[in-house]
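Protein modeling request. Please complete all fields; requests missing the sequence field cannot be processed.
Requester role: graduate student
Desired output: 3D structure, token encoding
Chains: 1
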Amino acid sequence: MTTNAEAAENPQPPRRRAPAGAAVLREDVTEAIRAAVFEELAAVGYARMSIEGIARRAGVGKTAVYRRWRSKLHLVLDLVSAMAVQGLPAPDTGTLEGDLRLLYEVTSRALRHPVASQVVPDLQAEAARSPEMAQALQKALREGQAGVANGIVEAARARGEIGADADGELALDVIAGPLYWRAVVVRGPKPPKGYLEGLTRATAAALRAL
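Delivered output (210 residues):
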């Protein structure tokens, strides 16, 4: 059955015809599918999630999903990549500790979000069973975080706050590791008052020692 969203998927341009075979993908349909994926993941988990369920929740047909992603794995990984950087600031406070504190505040809130707190551990469990998922998930998360962390490191180098030869890979692990360990691996409670300030100081000290 063709839905209203699907029927509008390829509207005829008023003046210029699209090239033969070209698909005009509506952004509102794409966003509806993305939202449905997070809801479906939180509701049933990755293993039980299906393209049919996603399409039904988004109010579209399966073809609308398959026009954008060829499988549920590719769909989820695309969203994980976006989630890894969505909402993360490109800190520019003028100091290393200021940049780290801003990053940690935003990341801590994102990891405590009810959907993220359900979805990320579920995907990690699936990655333990699927080498393809493990490799792709690691790549998506690491690349997403690397851009922001590298920006912090490069700015600190330019200001002379850390050494010019500081190891970038090690710096990324030092910056990104603690919150993910607490929120995703051990799934600890909300950080107590003063935790982010202490983490910021400890991370800054570690980066200066690289």
